[in-house]
IclR family transcriptional regulator (Candidimonas nitroreducens), 264 residues
Amino acid sequence: MRTTDEQAVGESWIRDHVQSLERGLAVICCLGTSKEMTLTQVAEATAITRAAARRFLLTLERLGYVGRTDRGYRLLPRTLELGYAYLSSQELPQIAQPYLQQLASELDESCGVSVLDQDAILYIARVTVSRLVGANLRAGSTLPAYCTAAGRILLAALGPSELANYLKRAKLEPRAPHTITDPKVLAGEIEVARTQGWYLIDQEIEHGIRSVAMPIRDTSGKTIAAVNVSSYSTRVSLTQLHRKFLPRIRQTVEKIEAELHSHR
């Protein structure tokens, strides 16, 4: 049974909620999953009627966020303003980027800084080397939290009730040979990440891909982001990840934290 405070919060949310804004953002998000989509596909993906989907698409088209194609609709470059507005307002991406450049150069591997965004990790800074690992990932890209090294680091920072709710709702789909899909086993691995302060994923997000991550903490010790480096299993052994990659990631984290804390 809900408490009086919970009821008050729920009633306030209903009163202040703007459904049309929610649906408009849902249309933008769904178009971001494909190069182009038909009106019917947009309506089905957002669970709204074709008539409503058409109105939202026409409005977004007039505002310059959506364009028409021969087969349907696609996002236009102006939508980048929405993401860049967030990135430009945050200190961490700007602080982290040069240190990621140095880390990628030293290890010759792709790396990034990500934060937890609902049930996914969201890259806020990224450096990709000229190899196929994460070649399509950049600032603004997302990946599932449950099967990524950075994701387990960030999930480890959640409180007990938050983590329990996540484990109940998360869809743990097998994406690669070693993907953990049992909530109890996943909870155990998240605890490992919490205890040791770093985490290594071996072919869970994609076949042949390994990744190791560490948390970035604020002045209070709270985890606010994670740094990760990814590589092919055929290029880098688990021993190399431990002995070579982990110390370099730790140094990078220390540099980022030192500069971040100096701005407070």
Residues 90-262 form a domain with the Beta-Lactamase fold (CATH 3.30.450.40). The first strand starts at residue 66 and ends at 68. The chain has a mean pLDDT of 87.
